[in-house]
Amino acid sequence: MPERPHASLIASIAANERWSAVVDRTAETAPARRAFLDRFPNENARRAYFQRMALKSAQARRARRKAATP
């Protein structure tokens, strides 16, 4: 894959241009938030999902620390 040194900057410019036209960001993202939350049948399922994500994040950080130590 070729190196793309400016990809992050180009993406940032595009995101800023896209959001510059939006008056109410909360209203703009409401359909996506609703679709995400509708995936869970109840509050406990949602909490379990986020706890699982937190566990995976902690495990990844631990693995990176372990790999970085000589």
How do the strands and helices of this protein lay out in sequence?
Layout: H1 7-20, H2 25-37, H3 43-68
Please give a structural write-up.
The protein is mainly alpha-helical. It has a domain at 42-70. The chain has 3 helices and no strands. The chain has helices at residues 7-20, 25-37, 43-68. The longest helix is centred in the last third of the chain and has 26 residues, at 43-68.
Helix content: over 70%
Rg, Cα atoms, Å: 19 Å
Structural class: mainly alpha
- Record field, number of beta strands: 0
Shape: flat
Low-confidence stretches: none
End-to-end distance: 30 Å
Order of helices and strands: HHH
Beta-sheet strand percentage? Answer: under 5%
Average pLDDT taken over every residue: 94
Q: How would you classify the quaternary structure?
A: single chain
Give a short overview.
By secondary structure, the protein is an all-alpha fold. It has a domain of 29 residues.
Identify the notable features of this structure and list them briefly.
70 residues; mainly alpha; 3 helices; 76% helix
